[in-house]
Design a protein that fits this description.
185 residues, alpha/beta, five-stranded mixed sheet, two-stranded antiparallel ribbon, globular
Length: 185
């Protein structure tokens, strides 16, 4: 009887460890450590895209991913969106994908499907996902969510979805240099 309680308490304590974020790959029952800071595998997420479909990060390995955290009211975010296709075209769609997560609409509320479609009409070409997020995805420290402290914030992921770099603010040349470094290495 005592051993049963020890196992139960151990399970509870393991599940309550705040610094360790885990994602379970149920098909293999193996634990995958993930996080939101440089050199960590980005935790998987599933969000609605501009077509009303679910989009999951782990289904899109194999390319360098520019994960763009933006708000619809943010002018630098809109400038980045205007340049997104230029960035992807510079390296090729077979090597780089641009994924936008809109965190707020123009009224600072979570975006809905109409907002995603509006963003796509203004800035997209239909080939890159635009996803509906909200502030629950964010954590300035990066311990329990995306480390957003300025708009826009970019997480640059390698082909295995590990975070290589986090860029705050918009600068096309800096972003391109970060992608080039990943391609070289």
């Amino acid at each position: 009887m005592e051993m049963k309680w020890l196992v139960y308490i151990g399970v509870l304590l393991t599940g309550c460890t705040p610094a360790l974020v885990k994602d379970i790959a149920y098909e293999t029952a193996e634990e995958i450590e993930c996080g939101y800071l440089p050199f960590e595998l980005l935790c998987d997420f599933t969000l609605m895209d501009q077509h009303g479909n679910d989009w999951s990060l782990y289904d899109h390995k194999g390319k360098i991913t520019v994960l763009d955290l933006s708000a619809m009211w943010c002018a630098p975010c809109r400038n980045a969106a205007l340049a997104s296709q230029n960035v992807v075209n510079s390296f090729g769609h077979d090597k780089v994908q641009w994924v936008t997560i809109l965190v707020e609409d123009v009224e600072r509320n979570p975006p809905d499907l109409a907002d995603l479609q509006s963003w796509e009409l203004a800035y997209g070409n239909g080939s890159e996902p635009i996803l509906a997020g909200d502030r629950s995805l964010l954590d300035a420290s990066g311990q329990n969510g995306f480390p957003l402290t300025s708009w826009p914030t970019f997480l640059i992921l390698d082909e295995d979805l590990k975070i290589v770099e986090i860029l705050k603010g918009w600068n096309e040349q800096t972003l391109k240099l970060a992608i080039e470094q990943i391609l070289i290495n």
